[in-house]
Here is the input.
Amino acid sequence: MWAFINKLRSPKWFYAISARLQPWFWAAALILIVIGSVWGLAFAPADYQQGNSFRIIYVHVPAAFLAQSIFVSMAIAGVVFMVWKIKIADMAAAMMAPLGAAMTFIALFSGAVWGVPTWGTWWMWDARLTSMLILLFLYLGVIALRGAFTSRDSASRAASVLAMVGVINIPIIKYSVDWWYTLHQPASFTITGRAAMPLEMWAPLLIMVLGFYCFFIALTLMRTRSEILRRESNKRWVRDLAGGER
Amino acid sequence: MTGTEGSVSKEVPVVFHGEPGGGLAVAFWATLKRDLVLLLRRRSEVMNPLVFFAIVITLFPIGISPDPQLLTAIAPGLLWVAALLAALLSLDSLFRADYDDGSLEQLLLTPQPLAVLALAKVAVHWLLTGLPLALMAPLLGVMLALPAGSYGVLAVSLALGSASLSLIGAIGAALTVGLSRGGVLLSLLVLPLYIPVLIFGAGAVQAAIFGDGVMAHLAILGALLALALILAPLAIAASLRISING
Amino acid sequence: MAFESFNEFIAMGGHAPYVWAAWGVTGGLLVAVVLHARAERRLLLRNLQRRVRREERLVANQGEMAGISHQTGGNRHDT
Amino acid sequence: MSLRLQAHSLACERDDRWLFRGLDLDIRAGEIVRVEGPNGSGKTTLLKILSGQLADYEGELFWDERPMREARDDFLSNLLYMGHAPGVKAALTPLENLTWYQAMAGQPQDEASRYAALDDVGLAGFEDLPAGQLSAGQQRRVALARLVLTPRPLWVLDEPFTAIDRDGVAALERRLFDHARRGGCVLVTTHHELTPCAELRRIHLGGGGLDDGN
Here is the structure.
């Protein structure tokens, strides 16, 4: 564990190891997402209540999962950066934020589109959609705060603190929004609220979720490598690398 | 210019100090008192949020409808949202003056824990913003045709909730104090985190109108305040240290 | 297979606009994110190479100048 | 207990630029250390690190031969720091400003000593005026009154001569040398030339450079 943390201090080591890991995650992401998409779109049975509009679940739920997971990952990276002063963690956190915002947007958009055949309206103050909207604001806050500082060191620290504060608040927000929703609309049903789903329905969902996670890891590795090049461009080994890849 | 200037007795040797003993309470009260005096000398800064609160509440009947029934329905949320925005208004200046004149550095360099001293500053913000807003809210409630019997709950919920708002908001203020244009960013960072307080605060007033039990809401507001009291000062202290790094 | 024919698949039992809009936006965004990451990486590498080449030229030039005028106290970088 | 502030191979990197590297310091009682260097060479940053405000540096700091992390509270209760900004509240009177500082230093509240301190820096008669109505030099003097009010062995002063008139500069210089002679220690940055003497030491900060390491 400690050896690993110490290795993480070296961007050079990370650059090398991520180059080897990256293709596997890209391949896994591609395969899983293709299988999940074909299965979910063409082979999974239609929902007896919602018909084929239910197939939106295969993008909505993975995106919503990832949106929350990425925020938690960002906060964990923030802790790692603040406690052990590992710059790689902060670089990764900086690269995760836009993807997290994109995933939150996908979850919101697909949820809104799903709302048309289900509730007959583009927007419903559904508990899940409302928390997703708040999560989007939290993401925008972290991104804006990081962009507002002129000093990168301060930006990193401030974004880390905000991510930690946000991650403590996410469950509180989620529970209070759920509570608020049940208070105001006790009768209506949530789009993904049912537990009992046959295997043919949730197996592709599981595959899609896994595929999205692999996509997130692969993209974060790739963009963190780019960020290393950006931030360490004064270092000798980066210079040699650029010279070598001519 | 006096003739005695610089006449230091040369016999007295420099005194060393041991570990600081007490003094925390003294420093806490001194900071509290200093900030109270400072704000009371610039009374317009204390008045501004209150006037803002009143004006916003006036805008709604004009913008929507003077119908008392409609106003009764939206009054709890309206009063809470307006009070929340009014409290946000004065938040930006919470650490700004100290940052500009250098007393923030001095605050950081006392042997006393920074979190406790920051708490003193937040307490002043609540005493001169949150508490007056809570006391003023029933008056505006009359103008929004709030049913009798909910006035006490409105004031208590605002008093409890605005303390949490001050604590959470101070984190944002501490993060943005080093930025020249932190005001808008501050609202972006802080407002999503205000949502749980808003839900239970407005919920309490609504419950009072419907004659439901109010204690549950107030208890949750109290729990949120307790959590904020424990965690927020630490985040504020960490954020101030980041901001002072510039 | 949940559908009898390809046309039925496209029609999605009347829910086509919704299903395909959600999937389309998701797919489009994923692809865009990947393309952006690739473009970002290429641009960074190109800029880095340009900078390295420029500095090499600079060092080479200064080396020549030092050789001609036999100066040693120049502001040469020993990279 | 002895006054000794040490730094081993201190380095500070700001946004991929080294402000200084491999800086070794050993500051003892009875010394006046003047930190010199061109603008942007990290003088203020060094003072902030040495006064425990900045934590993002490499290398080690020792106070009283203990690592700074352990000795921090003890260090802070022996330190008097004055930054670029004087830390004087414009809406408060000089007397009220000092009241706060006295409380923050953990000293007993004592009005007579506050009057004496203001008297000493030439502010007699201005005690009850809001500091905002005083001149910039007088506001700086309010801050300087802390040197008299709060006896601390280690002074870290960032540009303390700013905005002060010639008599005031001479008096402040006397005060610094006097403090060193009494076994105190002064760490100072200034554009003003200090009169050379036995206690005075200089630290020169140059520019950083391209990093060749990993």
Remarks:
- Chain A touches chain C through 42 residues (CB under 8 Å).
- The two ends of chain A are 37 Å apart (CA to CA).
- The CA atoms of residues 104 and 132 of chain A lie 6 Å apart.
- Chain A has a mean pLDDT of 88.
